[in-house]
Write a structure and sequence with these properties.
Pfam families: Rhodanese (PF00581). Its EC number is 1.20.4.1. The structure is a single chain. Helix content is 32%, strand content 16%. Strands 1-5-4-2-3 form a five-stranded parallel sheet. It has five helices and five strands. The chain is α/β, with parallel strands linked by helices. Bound molecules: zinc ion. Zinc ion binds next to loops.
Amino acid sequence: MSRGISYITGSQLLSLRRLPNIAIIDVRDDERSFDGHIAGSLHYASDTFTDRISNLIQEVKGKDTLVFHCALSQVRGPTCARRLANYLEEVKEDGGIKNIMVLERGFNGWEAAGRPVCRCTGIPCKDESA
Ligand SMILES: [Zn+2]
């Protein structure tokens, strides 16, 4: 059985992102340091994503919905979402993760729509934007 990956729009995510069951996973690479990020998002760069996948699963314990994005959510975001879905299938364990989603239009679309961007340099994000 294959897990589906669905898409979420920026406006949907804007209203849902503060829910405690949602984790936002930013898989951009170096751009995160320069371009800001969605407040509270976790950073798992696409180039090391596969190696860190078990860390990710630990870090999102208790969240049932993961929203992936990269700059445009055309390549890296969906690819990493798919890798996670495949990994969960292989290990036959879902870690409580029910929904794997991709943010439509990615971070660039989020920012272009005037949605809030956090520019903290904290790891993890200090979530300084409102
Ligand atoms: Zn931040």
